[in-house]
Design brief:
single chain, 551 residues, alpha/beta, Rossmann fold, ten-stranded mixed beta sheet, seven-stranded parallel beta sheet, 17 helices, 24 strands, binds glutamine
Length: 551
Amino acid sequence: MSKESSLPGLYAHPEFREVGNLSAKKFVVITGGVISGIGKGIFAASTARILKDSGVRVNTLKIDPYLNVDAGTMNPNQHGEVFVTDDGYEADLDLGHYERFLGQNMTRANNLTAGQVYWSVVRKEREGRFLGATVQMVPHVTEEIKSKIRSIDADVGIIEIGGTVGDIEGEIFLEAVRELSLELGRENFVFIHVTFVPYLKTTNEFKTKPTQQSIQLLRRIGIQPDFLVVRSESPMDVDSLDKVALFGGVPRNRVINLPDTSNVYEIPEQLYRLGLHRSMAKMLRIDLVDNGLKWEYPKAVKPVRIALVGKYLGTDDAYKSIFESLILAGVEKPVVIDAEHIEELERDEDVRMYLSNWDGLIVPGGFGKRGIEGKIRVIKAAREERIPILGICLGMQLMVIEFARHMAGLEKANSTEFDPNTPHPVIDMMEQQKKVLNLGGTMRLGAQKMEILPGSRLAKIYGDQREVYERHRHRYEVNYEGYKELFCKPGEEDRDKLVISAMSEFVEAVEIPDHPFFVGVQYHPEYRSKVGAPHPLFIALADAAERKGSR
Ligand code: GLN
């Protein structure tokens, strides 16, 4: 997408540049069949990684056939988390997989939605750029899609098409890749179709029919897959796989069965062992360097129990990057506890009892009033009971509200997001935000520079780095000018004040020094974790939780 047609964040990262004319020459296109949610994103990320470790310059493009311009306005309860990139793009969570698996930062150039495509085509039509033509799905919309795919900055572009074959919205994207594969030469394309084979307990057999039918759908569009990746709950028998190969018209050695695994970080190793990178390279006629896979993730887990105090309980994906950050820091997947349930508990004593099951807590980001009083109760208990706690974005804002209410006696302290008439707006809308009318892509978004104040716990966690960029996504901020007396700087420690540990033009982090771990950050550290390099805040929380657990 060109600059003017995009909806950039208000404060784009200063180092961000649009991708130039460099373009990929070869492509791996990943489609899905039967059902969604079978790990196509993980597979795409793993495929990219095994090629990257074999010396190939890869990049990824996630295509989302929905009409939203980006994922920013979608409800995390249905769609999972919104992943924010350095350049302030609000993306589908698959970009998070790509970043973590590839160890490479994504930008808005790595995602294309139908909303963007149509927006751009319609804008061009208004500008009179189609020279009197009737503007049509083919060739105008397909050309818009193809030009985006061509512009992927890499030697091999990995394209993941969201949804499943047969979805109405997805068809135009499949048509575009089909056309492009003819234009650039079919030999420059590898098509991989990822499907699911259910197991029927009553008759004790794998059922391959849905997979056969989804391959037929793909062929009808004019795409013959080169590889079939068959997901299943348990390992499939040879006969069923032979059948899939036969009906799919794919050589048996290019049918890969990937049964469920409890650890998705094993997938790149599995694919590498199967030699998928070599088979793809052979088809694409590219050379590989045989370096082995440089892939490290925690094999043993620390015996700590972490709970995340959430309010988007519709899907585990709502807090995806936080989960993965903890797993990559060597901690078991956290338990999500319901903030609204905590509101219902009668006495503070009950909250303390309830929380005694966990060694560490996370209060994550979120929007709107629902559940926030429950989260505030958790923060109060964690502060008083000395339970390690990390507040992220909304979580940090609630830490400030809790402190103002219970330590500074500002009983009705609140954020104007939840109570516009609060007498003590300790969290308030940023001045710049008051003029904003549209809700899409208009928050304070993406990488922002801050200064970490020396002498703080945060400074230790960051290994004494002073200037750091972290990713943001919020409209409200700490009302420092209005409530300076609530805060102090590291070193001036006063038990009745919250220590500010990072600043920009806003308060970016707070902490309580006399506590095993009480840290709140206005940014989202979870977006920066990579395989082999989890964000240090999660390691620090896990360590503090481990110390508590062993007491
Ligand atoms: N709702 C809060 C704000 O807009 C926090 C946002 C978040 O947690 N990402 O500032």
